[in-house]
Amino acid sequence: MCAEDSPRDAHESLHAPTLCRACGELRLAEAVANAQRDYSRAADCRVLLRRHQATAECAARRAE
Fold first, then answer.
1. pLDDT per residue as tens digits for the range 2-59
2. Which residues, at least 6 apart from 19, have a Cβ–Cβ distance to it below 8 Å?
3. Alpha carbon distances (Å) from 60 to 30, 32, 34
4. What are the Cα distances from residue 43, in Å, to 27, 28, 47?
5. Which of 13, 17, 30, 12 is nearest to 59 (CA)?
6. Is 46 within 8 Å of 30 (Cβ atoms)?
């Protein structure tokens, strides 16, 4: 099977992998809010993501 046949492989090549579950959940919540045109909630998700990434709890931050 070619990598182009797998939607997951194609998607992963466009975006960096999320190493932290909390980061992934906040990014997903932001995407859902944007899809629902709830831009205030999307902005809240971005703020929460930045705050989370500034903490020692963020696994993605520790991986750098």
1. 444 544 444 444 455 557 999 999 999 999 999 999 999 999 999 999 999 999 889 8
2. 59, 60, 63
3. 18, 22, 23
4. 11, 13, 6
5. 17
6. yes
